[in-house]
Fold this sequence. Notes:
With 204 residues, this protein is α/β, with parallel strands linked by helices. The protein has helices at residues 7-23, 40-45, 63-73, 110-123, 145-157, 166-175, and strands at residues 30-34, 53-58, 82-83, 98-102, 129-134, 136-137, 164-165, 178-185, 191-197.
Amino acid sequence: MTKSFSETCEENKGPILAVLQDVILPSDRRLLEIGAGTGQHAVSFAPFFPFMEWHPTDLAVQIPGMGQRFKEARIPSIQVPRKLDIKKDDFPKVKFDVVFSADTLHVMHWKDCKAFMKLLGHRLREGSRAVFYGPFKYGGGFSSPTTEEFDLSLKAVDPLSGIRNFEDVNSNMLKNGFELVCDYEMPAFNRTLVYRRLKFESHR
């Protein structure tokens, strides 16, 4: 089976790993990756956190190639990849300390982004973290002409996709019981947003 390869994953793995090394605690036991894609991030990052199970998920079409990459990599902490369509599937029924998702919010429709954040609020408990990597707009403006061109290319394929406003993401995460821990500046005009779940009782 031919595995897919993402040049973007290869380019951004170093900066993302640096953030994860700040975010992931020695006491963390399970990480859920939403939109694991080619599996390159899991293979690059999981060896740095051998104490933690890495649970990769994505749409069904991605699972065979991802599984082949994991089979070849033989990294014990990477679990069998699972199909997860955020529009209709729930998270696996185990406790996750971290949920990580890279380059997904701008591909998903906004209603699905909101459903994702609502699911995070329901399934994560106090102290768990949610980590989003990708491009964001601030105050409705693009960070560079390159990101604006990227947004136009996304909308040309799917008018309901596109780079999300940080303020909209942040508002929805706060509404679902999270606090913003850090907003990391990343290379190529990307950001990494890190949220922490507050006490479950605070959720409305």
